[in-house]
Structures are given as structure tokens and as C-alpha cells.
Amino acid sequence: MLARVWSASIVGIDAVKVGVEVDVSGGLPGIVVVGLPDTAVQESRERVKAALKNAGFAFPMRKIVINLTPADLRKEGPSFDLPISVGIMAASEQVSAELLGDYLFLGEVSLDGNLRPVAGVLPIAAAAARLGIAGLVVPVDNAREAAVVQGLAVYGFKDLSQVADFLNEPERYSPMQIDGLQELAHSKLTGPDLKDVKGQAHARRALEIAAAGGHNLIFVGPPGSGKTMLARRLPGILPPLSFEEALEVTQIHSVAGLLKDKGTLVSDRPYRSPHHSASGPSLVGGGSFPRPGEISLAHRGVLFLFYRH
After folding, report:
1. Domains in the chain, start-ordered, CATH in brackets?
2. pLDDT averaged over the chain?
3. CB within 8 Å of 197: residues ≥ 6 apart
4. Across the chain, which distance is largest between two alpha carbons, in Å?
5. What is the pTM of this model?
6. Which of 86, 202, 203, 268 sees the fewest Cβ atoms within 10 Å?
7. What are 54-68's pLDDT values in tens digits?
8. How many CB atoms are closer than 10 A to CB 171?
9. What are the distances in angstroms from CA 268 to CA 54, 127, 144, 218?
10. pLDDT at res. 59
């Protein structure tokens, strides 16, 4: 039997919809994954097999072919564990397949069937809302992060058993609701404050002018004169992030795996201070699997570059 589950992959800081097709047919028992999977996706075969058995589901001892579409897009990371598991359960008729076309599935599975959080859920949720997807099924630790996006039904589950119950009896579950605007309005500045600086009148005046006009600054002085101390306090006097700006910044940090409190929008303007020996790729991003660099991570905030001569 054939089952199709929808998931998504991160390319740079954008999300691309990915189809997970699972075919369970006669033949020698085994699992084949095609569609340009990386090592983490290939290893999902063993994780999914153990997770389904330990969660109380029957693993079909038949030939299983898993195709990740589009076939020319490189797939990476453990986030395909959950859609592969759901596809196998649906193809072996252990869960209903009625809702599979309406939801995106993301998550890593542990060997006991529990779901673990993954990075990049927020940009995927934003892309799902733009594409008209009804909802998102994610690990419970990612639910608040995805629920920040308005107009999307987000369900967070602890293990595969709960996901199976949801697919068979969706009316028993309610999506998570979060008011991102309200959370952003109640957030407080957590970074250093300029009021802690005593003296430095000319430097403080320069910071205020730069913050008011969006200007660049050059700090010149010997070590210990307060250049870094002042730079760290510049985000605190910049205008607060709007909801759209906070969403942009949080998406970038989500892709980079830097969200300390998943489900909460980044309310402070970013401050990034890379080491003076930082390489070009670490500053501008990129790589074989593109990831944000320091310049992207400082988006809507402050990038402090130290030059040693």
C-alpha cells in the first residue's frame, strides 16, 4: 500500500515543502530511502524501526521504499523521522490516512517512540501558513515555537502513540493557541542597559545619535576604554522590534538552532560580536548545507566587528 505524508526542509533560511512517499509491498524485508537523503536521514531507518516496535506498533516485515520529493533537493537532519514513521503506519493500515494531506509532520523520534524537538520549525510553520496548509504536527517542545504563526493549527505530541491517536480520532485534540503580539508586548529587555554606564558623556552621545539615525559607529581606543561595553548596550536604546521584525529574527535564530526558549519570539534586538579571527563563511554564512552567518544572525540588531592590528 502507498501512503504520502507532507513534511518540509530548510534551504538557507527558507522552507521547502517535501513529500514523503512510503510504499509497503511484497519482497524481501528491508527499507530503502531515496530522494537525496543525507546520513542523518538514512539513519532514520534504524531509529524508526526501533521506535515503532517499542511504541507498540507492528513494523511490517516487507519491502519498504521511502521516496523524498522533490528528488533533486538535498534532504538533511532528523526531522523526517516522524513523517517516515507516520507513512509506514499509514501504509500498513495501522492509522487512518484521511488527514495526511492536510498537515505537515516534523520531528525526531527516539528509540522508545518519544518525539524530540528539531531546529527550524518556525520558518517551516510560516511557509505552511503561506501555502494554505491546515496545520502542523510537531514534538511538544516545538509546539509553542510553531504556534506563534497565526492562522495555523499546531499540535504538539510527546510520542508516536499520541500522533496515532490524533490521526484516528482528531476530534479529541485541540491545537495550541498563542498570541504572539501579546507575548511580544509583555517581554522585557534582558540585555545590558546604558543606564549602567557612568560618565563617558561623548561616547553615550555618539550611541544615541547612531541609534536615532541608524548610523554606523567606529570605536577607537586602547583596550579597557569601554568600546565593547558601550557596543553591548546599543541594542537596548534601539526602537523595540515590531511583530514582523521579531518574527524575521526568530526565524533566523530557529534555523541556526539558537532559540533558548522555544515558543517565545526574540524580543531583544540581536547583538553579535564574532572573534576577530572569524572566517569569511562564518560571517556571511553558506556552506554545502547553507546556514546563517554572523551577518544574518545580527539582522535587525547590532553587528560588532573587532579589528586588531
Report:
1. 2-178 (3.30.230.10), 184-303 (3.40.50.300)
2. 92
3. 204, 226, 229, 230, 233
4. 79
5. 0.86
6. 202
7. 999 999 999 999 999
8. 6
9. 42, 24, 18, 23
10. 94
